[in-house]
Structures are given as C-alpha cells and as structure tokens.
Specification:
With 261 residues, this protein is α/β, with parallel strands linked by helices. It is built from eleven helices and ten strands. The strands form two sheets. An eight-stranded parallel β-barrel has the order 1-4-5-6-7-8-9-10, surrounded by six helices. It has a two-stranded antiparallel ribbon with strand order 2-3. The structure holds indole-3-glycerol phosphate (IGP).
Length: 261
C-alpha cells in the first residue's frame, strides 16, 4: 500500500465506518439530468469543477468562494458543476456541494472516491445529481453493484476509466457516461492521448465520452473533440484563471477556424 489511490481509499474506509453509524437512508429525491442534456445537444458539454487543492498540485486556489465560482460557471454555459467533496486530499467539503446545488440550476456532480453505498446516500442528502465511480478503485462486482444502486436512486453515473481493461469493464456493466481520465491517478502523469486511445471503443458502445483532466488550451480541447468527446471535465484551468469566461471562449472557439491572433 503505497500509491496515492490506495492511501485515499484507506481514508475512505474510515469515513465509511463513521457514516455507517449514522444509518442515513436513501431519499430517492428528484435529480437534474445531465444525460438528457447530452442527448439534446451536439455542442461539447462542459463540466466545470470547483477544486481548491489536489494531491498532484497542492493548493490550487484556496480563496475562491464555491457559490460565486459555480454561478459564473453556470452563467458562462457550463452543462454541469463538479464539486470535490473529499476533505483529506482535496480540501473539499459536502457543504460546498450543498451550497452550489442551491445556487445553480444545472446538475451537480459529487467528486469523491465512492466504494460503498453509504457514500452515495450521503451524496444524495447533500444534493448531488451525478455520481462518479472510479473503475480503478472498484472490482467489477462492486462497480456493477454501485452503478446499479446509484442509477436506482435516479443518479446519472459517470464511470471513470484510464486504460482499455477499465473501459471494457465500464462498457460491460452498461455505463452510459464514461469519463476518460487523462491523468493517471497513481503516477499523476497527464496525457491527452489517453482520450484519443480510448474514445473510439467507448463511442462504439453507444456511451457518451467525457474527457477529464489536464485540459487547458484550445489545442487540447480540439484534440479531445476530434477524438469524439461529447464533454470535458475541467478543474485547474478554471480555478487558476482570473475570470472563467476566457476558458469558455477557448472551448467555444476550438474546432472553428483559427484566427491569426
Ligand atoms: O484540474 P484538472 O486537471 O482540469 O482535472 C479535473 C478533473 O478531471 C480531476 O479533478 C479529476 C478527475 N478524476 C478525478 C477523480 C478524483 C478526484 C479528481 C479527479
């Protein structure tokens, strides 16, 4: 047990112990659908993330307010907002997610490391509409069980993959929303070619592809668009920019004719 994912999952086991003692029950509340947004658009969907810090980057931006950041994401045309809720490694908070949910009317993704049903129930209580399941953190059986559990509660489920075997598992369990993480969670190495490598097979299955991590320039965005991505998940570039609109302009301009400027 040495890599960062193992460390995070060990911490999650402790959280789960505490959560279980609270015996939270599922609500089955109505969720905002991200899937239907994708169904109704040909535009690249942007999931804009609120991320204060990360194990790979340390502090990214400790001063931003989650509500004003999320409002500007929504005003600039984000299709969904992602909120890091892990405290120990990402300095996130479930309270951030609840505040964001109340402030915007687009779907909110709970960005955490889910390995147990109780965490999904807690995310539901906090107001999440979309759940992330990381294939690298779950064996096939648990991935399938948690996927089904979250879907039954009405969540859209984003299944995150980083290699062919994980992509196949995600397709096999019938995932309709598959995120390709360009960042290797154990080495932190980022390579946008991951999206180019894995997108074709995923697209063939009929699932939507979201390209995640390390996206900054119009060239990055154009590459993943050309690879077939239906959406992108962007954190750092939004959190470090003075205003978020420039990044949205970059996204809108990608794929169009380059200006000489
Ligand atoms: O800040 P970036 O490089 O734009 O990346 C955003 C997002 O993809 C990243 O935060 C992420 C992708 N998968 C994760 C799983 C857990 C925590 C975080 C993540």
């Amino acid at each position: 047990m040495s890599n960062i994912l193992d460390k995070i999952l060990a911490e999650k086991e402790k959280e789960i112990e505490i959560l279980k003692s609270t015996a939270l029950r599922p609500i089955g509340s109505e969720k905002r659908s991200f899937h239907s947004h994708l169904h109704n658009t040909v535009e690249l969907a942007v999931i804009a993330e609120f991320k204060r810090a990360s194990p790979s980057k340390g502090d990214i931006n400790m001063h931003r307010d989650p509500v004003s950041q999320a409002l500007s994401y929504a005003q600039n045309g984000a299709a969904a907002v992602s909120v890091l809720t892990d405290q120990s490694f990402f300095k996130g908070d479930f309270k951030d997610l609840t505040l964001v949910k109340e402030a915007v009317n687009i779907p909110v993704l709970c960005k955490d490391f889910m390995i147990d049903e109780t965490q999904i129930i807690r995310a539901e209580h906090a107001g999440a509409d979309i759940i992330l399941l990381i294939a690298a953190a779950l064996n096939r059986k648990r991935l399938q069980e948690l996927h089904q559990f979250a879907q039954e509660l009405g969540f859209d489920v984003l299944v995150e993959v980083h290699n062919q075997a994980e992509a196949e598992r995600a397709i096999d369990i019938g995932a309709k929303l598959i995120g390709i993480n360009n960042r290797n969670l154990t080495t932190f190495h980022v390579d946008i070619a991951k999206t180019e490598e894995l997108a074709p097979k995923i697209k063939k299955s009929g699932a939507y592809v979201i390209s995640e991590s390390g996206l900054k320039t119009s060239e990055d965005i154009e590459r993943v668009k050309n690879a077939g991505a239906n959406g992108i998940l962007v954190g750092e570039a939004f959190m470090t920019a003075d205003g978020v609109s420039e990044m949205f302009d970059r996204i809108k301009c990608s794929g169009k004719e380059h200006s000489s400027a």
